[in-house]
Hints:
The complex is a heterodimer of chains A (113) and B (114). Chain A has 113 residues and is mainly β. Helix content of chain A is 0%, strand content 58%. Helix content of chain B is 0%, strand content 53%. Chain B has no helices and 11 strands. In chain B, strands 2, 4, 5, 6, 9, 10 and 11 form a 7-stranded mixed beta sheet that branches. Chain B has a 4-stranded antiparallel beta sheet with strand order 1-3-8-7, with no helix packed on it.
Amino acid sequence: xxxxxxxxxxxxxxxxxxxxxxxxxxxxxxxxxxxxxxxxxxxxxxxxxxxxxxxxxxxxxxxxxxxxxxxxxxxxxxxxxxxxxxxxxxxxxxxxxxxxxxxxxxxxxxxxx
Amino acid sequence: xxxxxxxxxxxxxxxxxxxxxxxxxxxxxxxxxxxxxxxxxxxxxxxxxxxxxxxxxxxxxxxxxxxxxxxxxxxxxxxxxxxxxxxxxxxxxxxxxxxxxxxxxxxxxxxxxx
Lengths: 113, 114
């Protein structure tokens, strides 16, 4: 069974204090690994898709990396507006649910001034 | 691009009544849409996959007669919660499959059943 585990559950950073969020996964044939940002009371906002081990993608202060077992979301010099819950999800190649996503529980990030 | 809307954003209904939630892809066509449910402090749980012009596929444990899904066009899917009860109170979020494999999510609908 596909599993996605995110750590830590919650993370508090000072503004400018870089850190990484982890997403460990087991899936029978990865089609893609996704990172989303979710603000309270809102739907998830798409950030990145990673397809294969070794791939990296960047967007502003965020950088996502992928290995065969886990993905990291690196946040460089975060700002208070980066505070949100970051969700990791995997899409299995041979899932009975087609292109459906299997989400982790998320990491709640709080960046203080 | 890749904007998905949901309506209503929140709804309060009495126990036993039905509620319809609309999900629209505004600037792209989506042959496949998904419906998720999210309880407080928890992640998104897939309820069903909606394919345009065909019957929805429901995940195990989701009652298809209670959660009616209709995907009548390439830009609209609807979820009707029939005979709602307080335990159906939740945050319902739809997503639409883009041209690739990414899903783009709507802003969600907060349902409260009294």
